[in-house]
Amino acid sequence: DGNSGWRCPACQNASTQVPKTYTCFCGKVHNPEWNRNEIPHSCGELCGKKRQCLDCPHLCNILCHPGPCPSCPAFVTKTCECGQTSHSVRCGQSTKIHCSNVCGNTLNCGKHSCTQVCHAGKCSPCQLTVQQVCYCGSTFKEVLCGTKEEFSDGFGNFSCQNICGKKLNCGRHNCTQVCHPQPCQLCPRLPQVVYRCPCGQTPLSKLLELGCVERKICTDPIPSCGKTCGKPLSCGSYEFIHTCESLCHEGDCRPCSHTSNIYCRCGFKKKEVPCALLRNKAAITFMCDKRCNKKRSCGRHKCNEVCCVDTEHKCSLVCGRKLNCGLHRCEEPCHRGSCQTCWQTSFDELTCYCGESVIYPPVPCGTQPPECKKTCTRPHDCDHPVYHSCHSEEKCPPCTYLTQKWCMGKHELRSNIPCHLTDISCGLRCNQMLKCGMHKCKRICHKGECLIDEECKQPCVIPRLYCNHPCMAPCHPSSPCPTTSCCAKVDLQCECGRRKESMICSEASNTYQRIAAISIATKLTDLQLGDSVEISRLITKKEMKQARLQCDEECLALQRNRRLAEALEIDDNSDPFNIRSSGPKYSDLLKEDARKDLKFVSDIEKEMRMLVEAVNKGKHTKKSHCYPPMNRDHRRIIHELAQVYGIESVSYDNEPKRNVVITAVKGKSICPSNTLTSVLDKEMQSRPPPPIPHYKQTDKSGGNSGLSKPLKEEPVIDYFDVQD
User: Fold this and answer.
1) CA 383, 389, 392, 398: dihedral to nearest 10 degrees?
2) Cα distances (Å, whole numbers) of residue 381 to 340, 373, 374, 395
3) Are strands 622-626 and 259-263 parallel, antiparallel or unpaired?
C-alpha cells in the first residue's frame, strides 16, 4: 500500500520492522522444524497471544496459526449504558448494550433526573426554566435550571446592579450600596458611628466641650467645627490638588472656583477650563489639529488622523497592487510584504500558438503558454526559411537571413546584410548634387533628402575676377558674388627665394592706394555726375601677382657668397659657410620650460627620436605613440617639440584625463642634429657667471627695503592643445 514495512511471504502479515530472527506464528519457538501434520511455520502449540480487542482479558486458545487471532468466543455479563440491566454476550462483541428504560440519572442542577431512554455518554443539561430573584428583591428573571450566569450563585440569588434601597436598621434612611448578597450595613449617621465633624478635622468630643448639642438619633445634624472644609476635589492635578474652600459642611462640596488644565485626546495640546465644568468630562473633551505622521501597519501610508490615539494604526485602504499574474489587483486591505498569488483560475485549455503543446485545466491566472519546440507557423514579411521556434509573443524575432541590399544613397550593393536591416549606410560621402546646383552633399551616406528645410551654406567656389581665389561666401546661387576682400592665404617670397611668408591675399597687394588715386584722377568727372566707378579694372592680374617681399641683409649676404662661390668655382653641395648644418631653432619659452624640468624634456626627446628612427627604418609609413594624461604645460612642451621633429601631435579626451598622441610620418619627420638638452648645455657652458645681487637700501622714512619683485608672467595660451 506504499507504506514502509515488511510483508511475510507465508502468512502475508505486514509489520513495520523487518524481522531479524525466524520464529513461528505465535513467536514462542525460534527456527521451528517442519512437520507434515502441522501448519508450515507453526510450532503446534496454543497461540496464547492477546487478542486485538482491548477489553477482552482472554488469550487466544487455538493452535499456532497465521494471521490475526479470531474474536473471543467466551460469554461474559455486560451492563447497559444506564447500568440498570445486564445481559450475557460474547466477549469479543464490540457493540454496546442499550435497554428500553429511562436513564434516571441526576442532572447537572442536582435537583432533576434525566428523562431520556438509556443512552451513551453524559446526560444533557437540565432544560427546565426557574425564576430567580435578585438580592434586593426588585428584579426577577427566568434562566435554565443549574446554569451559572454572571452575578449568580446558582441557587436563585443574583445582583441586579441597581441601588439596594432597603431600609437600614435606623428605619429612617435607605441603603445606598449596589444590590448585594450580605446584610445591609449600619446607618452611617448613627450617633455611635459618627465621631468627627463633617470635614473630619475635629472630634465631636471637643465640640461638645465647646457647647454643641449632643446627637441622639441619626437625623440630628452633625455639629460643624467652623473651619475650612479642605476635602480634596476631583479636579486639579497630581502636582496641585484642589480642595473645598467652604466651611465645614454636610453633603457634597460646592463646585471648585479654580481652573484646571485638560489635555486633548492624544495629549499633545492642553486647554484651561473652569473646574465647575469638569463634573461632565465627556462634554468638555476636545481634539487638537495635529495629524499623526506615523506609518500605518502596511508601512506604505501615513496615518494622517487628527488627534490620533490609535496604537496599531491599521490601514483601512485597499492594497490595489498588481498580482503576480499582471492582470488583476490585490483586493485585500493594505498590508506589508508581497501579495498573495492570484486566486482566479481558468478552466479552459491553454495552448501554444500552433496548438501542439497544451496545459489542461485548471490553469492558474498568469500562467504563461507552454513552451513549444515546433517551428513558428505565424505569417512572416519575407519568404526566407524560418529558424525560430513557436512562441507566444505576437511579434516574431527579426529575420537574420543574410541578403544583398543597396545602401541608402545607392552607392554600392552591400553583401551579408541581415534581412531585417532596412537603412544601411556604406560609410562613403553622399556626393549628391544639392538644389543650388553648385555643391554636392558632404554628409555620410544617409536616408532621405540631403537638405529638407535648410539652404546650402557651403562656401562659394566661383573664382574671383582678379585673384582667382574662390569667393568663400555662403552659397548664393541666385545672386552675384559680394564684393568683399579676399581672405585666402598666399605665400610670398623675396627675389632670391630665401624669405617666405604667408599673408592674406587682400593685404599682399600694395597697389590699392595707387588704384584709388588713379581712379579719382581719371574718373573725377564721372564721380561728379553721380556715376559709379569699378576700380577693379584699373589693376591687372599680372600686377597683383608681382607682389613680393623685400630681401634683407642676410639675403644680400647669401647672394654675395653665391657670387663668390661661382667665382672661386666652389660646389654648392659642399656648404663651406656651414649654412645648412645650422641646428633647429628652439623658442625661448621652450628653453625656459626645459630648464625647469630637464628630465621630462629629455625623456620626451628620447621617445620622439626612437619613434622617428623606427618609422624611417620600418615598413610602415606612420607610427604613433600615446603619452599618459598630463597637465597643460607638459602637453604644450610636447606640441612644440613635435613641430621641431616634424611630428603630428593631437590632444584627446577631457580634463583631467587629457593626453597627447604623436604620429611620425616617413619622409616628413626628422631627427635634429642638436637636441634641446644639448643646446641648453652649450648655453650654460658659454654663459658668464651671474653678478652679485645688490640690495637696495632705504631710509627709515620708507621706500623699497628689499629686492624688487619680478613682474608676473602672462599666461601662455596652448594653441596646439585642441580637441581632435
Assistant:
1) -50
2) 43, 22, 20, 11
3) unpaired
CA separation for the pair 366, 479 (Å, rounded): 71
**Strand 86-90 to strand 75-79: parallel, antiparallel, or no bridges (unpaired)?**
antiparallel
Which residue, among 38, 28, 96, has the nearest Cα to 59 in the 3D structure? 28
What's residue 688's pLDDT? 62
Distances (CA, A) of 661 to 533, 617, 723: 55, 21, 12
Q: Which residues pair with 414 in a beta bridge?
A: 405
**Cα 564 to chain centroid, rounded:** 89
Bridge partner list, 15: 6
Q: Is the pTM of this model over 0.85?
A: no
Q: Would you give the end-to-end CA distance of the chain in angstroms?
A: 84
At residue 571, the pLDDT reads 64
State the amino acid at position 648 in one-letter form.
E
In one-letter notation, the amino acid at residue 503 is M
- Phi first, then psi, for residue 521 (nearest 5°) are -75, -40
C-alpha distances in Å from residue 313, one per residue of 114, 285, 308, 317, 318? 54, 22, 9, 12, 15
Q: Half-sphere exposure of 514 toward its Cβ, with a 13 Å CA cutoff?
A: 9
Can you state the angle between helices 598-617 and 632-645, rounded to 10 degrees? Answer: 40
Sign of CA dihedral 252, 257, 258, 260: positive
The whole-number pLDDT of residue 520 equals: 53
Cα–Cα distance measured from residue 477 to residue 437, given in angstroms and rounded to the nearest whole number: 8
Beta bridge partners of 232: 243
Rounded Cα–Cα distance for residues 648 and 666 (Å): 12
Whether the CB-CB separation of 151 and 136 falls below 8 Å is answered with no
Measured between alpha carbons, how far is 165 from 342 in angstroms, rounded to an integer? Answer: 65
Instruction: Please report, for the chain, the start and end positions of each structural domain, with discontinuous segments joined by +.
Output: 1-70, 489-517, 589-679
Give the side-chain half-sphere CA count within 13 A for 144: 11
Pairing of strands 140-144, 86-90: unpaired
Contacts (Cβ under 8 Å, ≥6 apart) of 252: none
Dihedral angle sign, alpha carbons of residues 438, 444, 449, 451? negative
| Separation between Cα atoms, residue 662 and residue 610, nearest integer Å | 12
The pLDDT of residue 266 is 86
Helix (H) or strand (E) holding 664: strand 659-665
DSSP 675: -
Q: Which residues, given as ranges, of the chain have pLDDT below 50?
A: 150-151, 154-156, 510-516, 538-546, 577-582, 693-724
Locus of grid cell 562659394: 460
Residue 260 backbone phi and psi in degrees, to 5 = -130, 155
Among 223, 323, 328, 235, smallest CA distance to 280 is for: 235
Which CB contacts under 8 angstroms, 24+ apart, belong to 428-437? 434/458, 436/475, 436/477, 437/477
Predicted pLDDT at 79? 82
CB-CB contact of 646 with 666 (8 Å):
no
What is the spatial distance between Cα 296 and Cα 378, in angstroms, rounded to a whole number?
51
CB 42 within 8 A of CB 24: yes
Task: With H, G, I as helix, E, B as strand and everything else as coil, classify residue 317.
Answer: coil
**Apex CA 682: angle with CA 681 and CA 686, to 5°?**
120
Q: In this structure, which CATH number among 3.40.50.720, 3.30.1370.50, 3.90.550.10, 3.40.50.300 belongs to the domain 589-679?
A: 3.30.1370.50
